[in-house]
Amino acid sequence: MQPWCVGISTLLLSALLPWPGTGQFHVIGPGAPVIALIGKEAVLPCHLSPVMDAEDMDVSWYRSHPTGQVHHYSTSQDLIEHQRHEYRGRTEFLKENITKGQVALRIHPILPSDAGEYRCFFASSTFYNEAQFKILVTGSGTAPQIYIEPGYTGEMKLTCTSTGWYPEPEVQWRDVRGQRLTSASETKTAAENGLFHVETSITVDTRSRDGSCTIRNPVLREEKEAQFSLSDAVFPRLWPWIVGFAVPLCLLAAGTTFSVLFVCTKRRKRLIKKQYGKLFWI
Questions:
Q1: Architecture of the domain whose range is 145-233
Q2: Which residues form a coiled coil (predicted)?
Q3: pTM exceeds 0.85
């Protein structure tokens, strides 16, 4: 190919591509899912590439599933007439760097229902573009509590409970060596606020010693653990029986001792009276 042909081809190709400054842009959202803690706040940043002033643009955040507007900024003000009702009073548009094409949306407080896919949308008078991202909502609940009660002969029932988890947590029983134990029952119930209450139980042999109940947040990979010791649990359970048996036994022994002493003393007096007469009677 002749050099002049290459120059014409390059010129034609350049003419077909958008020129810098024509108003076209890309919207860049969070590069990874946003992890939002229940009850806290989440900040959803978006910016334009190349850098340009977005002060006169329409900027919106939308839910993908279910669809609906989360927040809308236009003509230098917040417009909330079409905002989904569950976000009203919980969103704030951050525009300190809007002249550089950098904005963010703050949501507070985070609710379980905020989890899902979102779109960040920019529109100028000549062009528009959007970015998609995801919010992962999560929360770790209370420290587990273990309740111990007698089961069948040689067995004890252990029940582990905790509340305030999202999403559904993972539950594990382990023995003192860290080996997993099979639970007898396990329930995970969502409360009205969407948080999960966990209750799991296991039946173990009283010859077992120590172990633990662990509840794990699958998003944060955070664990909360409660330990149990059957040796400590069995002794308090037997203590009332020990006391109930020991006290009457002690009373019986004391009564028997007193009776023996009384009989021996009385017999001794009779012998002395018989040998020495009334003169030595005590």
A1: Sandwich (2.60)
A2: none
A3: no
